[in-house]
Amino acid sequence: MNELHKNFHSIQINITPHTFAGLAKQNMAFHQGVMELCDNAIAASLPGEKGLIFIGLAPGSSKDELLLVVADWGSGMDLSQLENALQLGSLPTGSNRLNEHGFGINNALASLTGGDRPWALYTRGRGAAGYLKVQGPFTPQMTVEEVDTPALPQELTLPRDHPGTVYCIHVPLAIAQSVQGRGGKATDLETLRSWLVEHLGVAYRGFLDLDSRTMESSAKIIAAVGSDAKLVPPIPVPIAGALVRRFTVEMGGQVIPVVYRYGALDEDKRDHLVLGAKAKYYYQGNQPTQGVDIRLGKRVIATAQLSEIWRGPNGMPLARHNNYNEFVGEVLLPELPRGVLSTLNNKTNLNPNDPDWQNLFSLLAQVPPLAHPKACTEKALQSRWISALLAVNPQDRVTDEMTVWPTGTRIDVLDEGDGKRVIYELKATKGEPLHLYQLKMYWDGLVLDGIQPTEAVLIVPKYTSDLARMTELINDRLTPPALPDGSPSLPYHIKLATHEEKCLA
Questions:
Q1: pLDDT class for 190, splitting at 50, 70, 90?
Q2: Is 171 helix (H, G, I), strand (E, B) or coil?
Q3: Contact between 297 and 285 (Cβ < 8 Å)
Q4: Which of the 8 DSSP states describes residue 185?
Q5: Which fold has domain 1-235?
């Protein structure tokens, strides 16, 4: 590092120009590049303070690019730290594994710019009055300028003064569109932001979610288009009736607790995940999004893992199949030291050569993924409900084997005893009108067989006021068939209940 004069400094980067071109071609999507900078920002959060990240989108100088601004209010960098950060494979500072590889800034800036568009980085160490500015594209020798304040697009306003680090990056539109996945063609900034918010909400849900003790999040991310700023929400895995398994696994010389939550995709939750709107990238109920997420500490480091974990009967990686479309889940691991459960250098996936991952996956293999998970989840709900009924009234006859109609249609649960005959229908997802008609079908089938029900209950995670009104209309306006001897049967007595009310949540 050689000082040119008091306002300029030179940083020598000891790699060839071809290296930067190679970094731009590592197949990182737009959101992955942004997350590299977010990881650094969270790692730089000041002790005792919540992390704050601002991500702004603004029009570029031409139709084929946009401007991306990423700012944080962390510790920033002095000249020595900046020189280290710009080196490819630099030694990470601090103990936070979010910046464990030393490739983050180089990966992000090369990928986001396509390797040849301009960018500027502004940063200041603790107590510094002004900022150090370095701008690219990358070259083996970079010049650092001392400036008073970051220069930002006029369309964007930071939520606070005096950020620690600010990036202003010219991003080709084609790269920004990769936030939608292959084939994404959106050109308006609001649409691109909505996709970016979904990615950020999934990856950082552990940081964005409210702590159960303090009722505060450990970080906030703001995504802005011009003056329109939105807070990125935590986006959980939308699981209906989640099943939970707990394990321990030895790795890195210590015993690590593992929590595995899994079950069926809850489409209703999915359809309101992203600022009240439907998720469009994750949890789609298709082959690319089936499988489980892996969360290390508060950071989701992989999503939609299936064949990566489980193997088929032939010993080969389990093939994705439509049977698993509704299978979702999450593997929760505590924060671990660097080097344990490692990721690729660009953090776009797990390191498949790490034996610790293989140890973990061998453990998870004991719980095969659910084919047709909604049916499996509902079967588990039925079993739990039968046990609950018998615990209260062990003398009752409670069964899930009663069938009606010539089709042999099976009732979920039938509880008979002490002058009652109660039909139960249990669903893993939100109550729907069709579910009420299933109960009506069971009721009518029993009556036609000469068996008089006394009550029918639909048990669901939640239901709407419209469904409650529909239940009232069935009870008040519709008439069940007569019994086989021609005598009238009792009127319908259908009720709604939630999993929580029945202690099935």
A1: very high
A2: strand
A3: no
A4: -
A5: Heat Shock Protein 90 (3.30.565)
